[in-house]
């Protein structure tokens, strides 16, 4: 029979082996570019997501965008706090075009009072979805993986989508133009360079 000390040691050994096996299994299911240490539960932490990091989805957002937001938030490739669903901010109106009389025999090229583009201050889309991949993973397939996840989520909800590009992203920016909304999957560099001010404005709205 095992002594009390031997039994305790055997129990500890079995627990250690089980933990190591679980860790190896978790690592084997992760993409090669994801750091396993980011995905394994840390001591004293909960597996539940931190809801304080979630940017709230507007109540009037379509159901398919709410589902897309939830899907993207679960992605291991994204910075949780970067996932945003919002209406595009209104664009400032520029100065009126200078008046210009028609020229030439055919009287072309004139600009008349009140002539111009009307109601384009809200941009091309009714909704914008923004998500940033973890720094350093943009060149290792993370952007393409998130795009596939987004397309699968939208396709499952019967949303029309543009043809899927087979090209790998080398500029840190991929976009899905889905008609009345657009999904941007970007690197940190692209987000800070092109969307920095807009993202902060969206967070305050």
Description:
With 205 residues, this protein is α+β, with helices and mostly antiparallel strands. It has a domain at 50-92 and 119-204: Beta Polymerase, domain 2, CATH 3.30.460. The protein is built from five helices and four strands; from the N terminus they run αααββαββα. A hairpin with a 3-residue loop joins β3 (173-177) and β4. α3 (63-73) packs antiparallel against α4 (142-156). Mean pLDDT is 74; it is low at 16-23 and 39-49.
Fold topology:
Elements: H1 4-28, H2 36-39, H3 63-73, E1 84-86, E2 127-132, H4 142-156, E3 173-177, E4 181-186, H5 188-204
Parallel strand pairs: 2-4
Antiparallel strand pairs: 1-2, 3-4
Helix pairs in contact: 3-4
Tell me about the biggest sheet? 4 strands, mixed
Radius of gyration, Cα only, in angstroms? 25 Å
Distance between the termini: 69 Å
Say what the CATH topology of the domain at 50-92 and 119-204 is.
Beta Polymerase, domain 2
Strand order of the largest sheet: 1-2-4-3
Q: Class of the domain at 50-92 and 119-204 in CATH?
A: Alpha Beta
The counted number of beta strands is 4
Question: Strand portion, in percent?
Answer: 5-15%
Helix proportion of residues, in percent? 25-40%
Give the name of the CATH superfamily of the domain at 50-92 and 119-204: Beta Polymerase, domain 2
Structural classification: alpha+beta
Any low-confidence stretches, pLDDT <50, length ≥5? 16-23, 39-49
**Average pLDDT rating:** 74
Helix count from the secondary structure assignment: 5
Task: Please trace the helix and strand order, writing H or E for each element.
Answer: HHHEEHEEH
CATH architecture of the domain at 50-92 and 119-204: 2-Layer Sandwich
Shape: elongated
């Amino acid at each position: 029979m095992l002594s009390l000390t031997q039994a305790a040691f055997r129990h500890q050994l079995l627990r250690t082996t089980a933990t190591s096996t679980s860790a190896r299994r978790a690592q084997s299911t992760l993409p090669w570019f994801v750091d396993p240490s980011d995905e394994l539960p840390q001591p004293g932490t909960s597996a539940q997501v931190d809801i304080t990091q979630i940017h709230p989805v507007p109540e009037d957002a379509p159901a398919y965008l709410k589902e897309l937001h939830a899907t993207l938030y679960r992605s291991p490739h994204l910075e949780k706090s970067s996932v945003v669903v919002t209406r595009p901010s209104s664009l400032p109106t520029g100065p009126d075009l200078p008046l210009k009389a028609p020229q030439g025999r055919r009287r072309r090229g004139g600009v008349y009072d009140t002539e111009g583009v009307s109601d384009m201050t809200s941009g091309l889309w009714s909704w914008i979805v923004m998500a940033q991949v973890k720094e350093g993973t943009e060149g290792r397939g993370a952007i393409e993986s998130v795009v596939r996840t987004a397309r699968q989520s939208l396709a499952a909800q019967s949303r029309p989508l543009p043809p899927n590009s087979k090209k790998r992203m080398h500029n840190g920016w991929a976009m899905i133009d889905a008609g009345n909304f657009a999904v941007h999957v970007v690197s940190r560099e692209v987000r800070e360079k092109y969307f920095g001010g807009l993202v902060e404005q969206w967070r305050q709205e």
